[in-house]
Amino acid sequence: MKLEILKTIIGTKTNFSILSMIHIDGNLATATNMEAEVKIKLPICLQKGCYTWDSLQLALAGHNIKPDTSDSEYPDVPDLVEVENPVKLQTAWIAALSKYMSKDSSQYTLNGWYYTGAELVAIDGRQMIYMPLHDGVKREGRIITNIAPYVSHFSKYINLITQDNKEYFYDKDGFLSVPLLSGKFPNYQIFLPKQQGDLLEVNFNLLRKGLEKLRPFIDESNKVICMVDRNSLYLSVHNAELNNIPTFSLPCLFPLQNITIGLNLLMFLNILENENKIYINSAKAPILITDGKIKKVIMPMVTDNFEKPKKSTPLVAGGFL
Q1: pLDDT in tens, 216-230
Q2: One domain, residues 122 and 149
Q3: Which helix (DSSP H) or strand (DSSP E) does residue 248 occupy?
Q4: Which of 98, 138, 182, 202 has the most crowded CB, counting CB atoms within 10 A?
Q5: Global pTM?
Q6: Per-residue pLDDT, 136
Q7: How much is the pLDDT for 12?
Q8: How is residue 78 annotated by DSSP?
Q9: Do 236 and 286 share a domain, yes or no?
Q10: Are both 111 and 29 inside the same structural domain?
């Protein structure tokens, strides 16, 4: 865990000046915003008290710096009690989960990610990611606060335990604790397709290229239209206010014909990765994108009638045909 995580924590509660400080006790540094809490080891021991981030940097560089203020008013942050066999998570998994959480504060239980001991889940109502954990033991699920702002300061792997109704993420250098979110997480199983569906074989680089070409025609009120017709995939945009919207086509292999799907372009771009495969059941069923382990699901949008275009701009590996 990197020292910079302290700087990420402090200063978010501007009404309390003491929370813009870092508490030092020997070689242990503490920062809190009364929600997230961090304790991390320093390379040297310093005089006990509260420091600003800049003062701490000078003190660690060897300058004779005294605390900016005493620690008499600094809130108490409990120590971590380590346990045997904690859950070990990849930091990359946590970062991926944050992309699928709801940004709408009214969807409180969707503002975090769901952990059951055997799986990790994040959903915002229109897209979802589901990660089964190897050798995980399923237990009562809990909703964990989004910790995306702090993930970049973690090492590659991080340990996870529950203590005093908080989740503790820790390594040999220190820990981050965050509160659990109250409420009931939705039944995410209903969003997982009951059948895997038919495989859509397509060049993901070309697909991304076509979607990026359509980005200027997209806003929150419209969607990208995908028509799959056995050997061709057509991409366009439904936007009643614009004319001359281009249609792009690219080769594909799919066992069915004339499947028309409406999708949120930004979500579709977010979910595509080269090692994944796309499975489609129908125009109205959730679309499954998976590498065989991690499952990503995107919900289709209602589409108006979209006929197979008479003209389209073909996309090829080097650009346009």
Answers
A1: 887 766 678 888 888
A2: yes
A3: strand 248-253
A4: 202
A5: 0.84
A6: 66
A7: 62
A8: P
A9: yes
A10: no
